[in-house]
Design a protein that fits this description.
single chain, 815 residues, alpha+beta, 6-stranded antiparallel β-sheet, 26 helices, 25 strands, 46% helix
Length: 815
């Protein structure tokens, strides 16, 4: 059957014409007002060609009314189901006049099955690509004076029914282009409990109550809550769509996952409680894939490069028992550090316990588990000091030269050779061995180099802070401000080199091929193995270059200005050390520590870069495996898709045991969906075991706050409009001078810093990637502005006072 009138459809027709059309037919048969129309089966069009059924379609539409305007919409079998809504994924063409334009609209609607966003939607939800059952509805348009939606049960309050309305047709509402009138009614009595009516011509409350009555009536007949689209022509109320509220199943799954995650944290709770934070990790790897999580756990395991780095520096590191809590873990789908476990492993017998202090700052206090532990404290402390003197200082003196002159060039050559290997000629087992080789290289060698620089940088920074506090103790805030000046415009920072090199590409001083050869192993984020590298997806680079074109000269000049400011500040600090006898005595020591910190701070980024070389190599193996098996599905994670949602052991089974692949892909698909749900739950950046039950509750309302407090990165005061973004794609909308507000940034974001008037990060540290670049180019910025992405909206007028570490909210919202 090629087409059918909506009023003649039955449940049996769903397999030919799709769900939406059948739902409309059932509404008609139940006595509700539905605009007259037909549905055409895509299967018939594909079999006979659209030209063969054109006459039949136009003849049917003529009978409905040749003077009418029509709406042409999709009706997929997957659409409007209890599991998936597909809202907005396929093309809808409104106000189509009778004639050839109807046929053209049908053609567009059919083509939209393969649109990029519909494909991505299917991939994200694990639905097979290219729906075989697809119908196109051609329906009489309602000349609506008001239109909207009715949610017969609110997602927030189960006893509430919601009606939303706009003047005219409802396409403005579903597109999100305007704010509708919003009414909340009691589901039992249909009494209006609250309303927000922003329309210039107010919606009649009688119409709202009528919509609610009809919606409740349909729900009672259908037996489950519905999302109903409606239109009112001034006389009659028409129903345009009725679909199950798919989010109830989603909410139930989310609650289950939330409780499972809480239980996991309870089971690994230690005596005295764990302290969890995403500080220093959440800003570089917010939403890690399971494969990345698995790799990070190996990095901190027994015999790893991390353990060796601590021991070679004369420090303690105990990897703990096999069932001990992880230092790094995925908590509610996000990257977190177990500070308690970390302190336990590196304390060297010192009875220390992390605690959350005032201002959400992590502190340490004595935590003797046994009386004997207290007695051994002096011995443990002496052992730490001895290790630092005999190991730390000698290794610090020589490592940076050895790394820059020998290690880094060698690793870059090795990576280039590995990248030239033809993976397609390897067997599945050879691919797996190659993957393990790359993973072990990162675990045993590369992260050894990185942890050496990280530990040396951290210890040296502590000595610099000590000198600054002694020198400027009489002036509040001066030590912190001076530290920022002394660490800006440092040479050798790999992130700065990346951005300046991209400026050279724009100016024709470097080819894009040369840039990719040197920097193409980077991704967004760099540590995430599921993230495509710049080498395989240059579109990111083209977007970055577009953002840099107008501001590259400013970026270069400001980097040079910051170098000069740092040199001047060094001279001032050296002179200020002469003021007191104590600082004069320690002057040589403090200046030496400052020199080393200025060397090792940017060296951290260079050791990061060599790690990323092998992340890219390991990713290539996974992508190759995906290409040769049914696991290959394009999606937001790039090539490889579901394989990145397996851990290392599961991935090994996938490579080596073909009979297990289908089952493993089902596990990966469910895990992918579950992580998406977990990541929509609010989790504090810092919490203890005592606060586990509060996770998932929204943060406190902050509408009454006049400012949000953060930590200064580069001082200055700027005014402008806020641009609150969740990801890099949204950040591309940033306009020159706007205050960029987001949870975190990684190196791929940094070209935006040349466009922004200021930067506010919800998390991160003063020496995170984003903070380093912001400071080097002189961008007023703050980090750790708690819940700022919840407190401020895009378009709101704000003042960023990065000197005080505050962002002030003005009363008016511009857009």
């Amino acid at each position: 059957m090629k087409l059918k009138s909506l009023g003649d459809l039955t449940v049996a027709d769903q397999g030919l014409f799709g769900t939406k059309a059948v739902q409309l037919g059932l509404l008609m048969q139940a006595g509700y007002q539905v605009p007259d129309g037909i549905v055409v089966a895509a299967q018939s069009i594909e079999l006979h060609g659209l030209a063969e059924v054109e006459g039949l379609i136009l003849d049917s539409c003529r009978k409905i009314g040749s003077e009418c305007l029509f709406a042409v919409r999709s009706s997929s079998q997957d659409e409007d189901s209890a599991d998936h809504s597909f809202a907005g994924q396929f093309e809808s063409i409104l106000n189509v006049p009778y004639g050839p334009l109807i046929i053209e609209a049908i053609r567009k609607c059919l083509a939209s099955r393969q649109s990029s966003h519909a494909t991505a939607y299917r991939s994200e939800l694990g639905i097979a690509q290219g729906p075989s059952v697809f119908g196109v509805i051609v329906q009489k348009m309602v000349p609506a004076t008001f239109a909207g939606v009715c949610f017969t049960q609110s997602s927030v309050e189960s006893e509430t029914l919601v009606v939303e309305a706009v003047a005219g047709t409802g396409d403005q509402l579903v597109s999100g282009k305007i704010t509708p009138a919003h009414f909340e009614l009691n589901r039992a009595t249909l009494e209006i409990q609250s309303k927000e009516d922003r329309l210039s011509s107010a919606v009649d409350t009688q119409l709202v109550e009528q919509v609610a009555r009809v919606g409740r009536s349909v729900e009672q007949k259908w037996g489950y809550p519905l999302d109903i689209e409606w239109a009112f022509d001034g006389k009659e109320l028409f129903l345009l769509q009725a679909r199950p509220l798919s989010y109830f199943k989603t909410q139930k799954r989310q609650r289950l996952l939330l409780e499972q995650e809480k239980q996991k944290l309870r089971e690994i709770a230690q005596e005295g409680g764990n302290v969890w934070t995403d500080f220093s990790i959440g800003d570089v790897l917010t939403h890690p894939s399971p494969l990345t999580v698995s790799g990070f756990r190996e990095i901190t395991s027994t015999g790893s490069g991390v353990e060796k780095a601590y021991r070679d520096l004369g420090l303690s590191y105990s990897a703990g028992e096999a069932l001990a809590p992880q230092i790094y873990d995925s908590v509610f789908g996000r990257s977190y550090i177990n500070v308690t476990e970390y302190v336990t492993r590196i304390s060297g017998g010192l009875p220390l316990k992390p605690v959350i202090g005032p201002g959400n700052k992590i502190g340490l206090k004595l935590n003797p588990k046994k009386p004997s532990t207290v007695l051994l404290t002096p011995y443990s402390l002496a052992k730490v000091i001895k290790g630092i003197r005999s190991n730390f200082y000698p290794l610090r003196k020589k490592f940076y030269t050895e790394f820059q002159e020998k290690i880094q060039p060698r690793l870059e050559r090795e990576a280039a050779i590995e990248r030239s290997r033809d993976l397609s000629q390897m067997s599945d087992s050879e691919l797996w061995e190659t993957f393990r080789t790359y993973s072990n290289k990162n675990r045993l060698e590369l992260n050894y180099y990185h942890m050496l620089t990280d530990i040396i940088s951290g210890f040296t920074q502590a000595f610099v802070k000590w000198g600054l506090k002694m020198t400027y103790s009489s002036t509040p805030g001066m030590a912190e401000a001076k530290e920022l000046e002394l660490t800006t415009g440092l040479p050798g920072n790999f992130n700065t080199q990346t951005n300046l090199a991209l400026c050279d590409v724009i100016d024709g001083q470097m080819t894009l091929e040369t840039f990719i050869e040197k920097f193409g192993h980077r991704g967004n984020p760099d540590w995430e193995i599921a993230a495509p590298r710049w080498r395989e997806d240059p579109s990111t680079l083209h977007r970055m270059m577009g953002q840099l074109k107008e501001s590259r000269l400013r970026g270069r000049k400001e980097f040079e200005d910051q170098k000069k400011k740092r040199v001047d500040s060094e001279a001032t600090f050296e002179a200020d050390l002469e003021r007191t006898a104590a600082t004069r005595l320690l002057k040589k020591f403090f200046m030496k520590e400052l020199k080393y910190f200025q060397i090792y701070s940017p060296l951290r980024e260079a050791t990061h870069s060599v790690c990323f070389l092998w992340v890219e190599l390991a990713r290539r193996v996974v992508v190759e495996m995906a290409k040769r098996t049914q696991g290959h599905r394009p999606g937001p994670e790039g090539l490889g898709d579901l394989l990145f949602f397996l851990d290392h052991k599961e991935l090994e089974s996938y490579f080596l045991q073909p009979t297990e692949r289908k089952a493993l892909l089902r596990i990966a698909q469910q895990r992918k969906a579950d992580l998406r749900l977990l990541r929509s739950v609010y989790v504090p950046h810092l919490f203890s075991d005592q606060e586990i039950n509060q996770i998932g509750l929204p943060p406190k309302q902050v509408d009454s706050l006049s400012f949000v407090q953060g930590q200064p990165i580069f001082q200055g005061v700027v005014h402008g409009l806020a641009r609150v973004v969740k990801n890099l794609d949204e950040a591309s909308l940033l306009q020159k001078g706007e205050i960029l507000i987001t949870q975190f940034t990684d190196p791929a974001w940094t070209p935006l810093f040349f466009v922004a008037g200021g930067l506010v990060l919800e998390q991160g540290s003063s020496f995170s990637h984003g903070a380093l670049v912001a400071r080097e180019i002189g961008l007023p910025s703050i980090v750790n502005a708690q819940d700022v992405t919840y407190s401020i909206r895009t378009g709101q007028q704000v003042t960023l006072d990065a000197t005080q570490g505050k962002i002030f909210l003005h009363a008016t919202q511009v857009c």
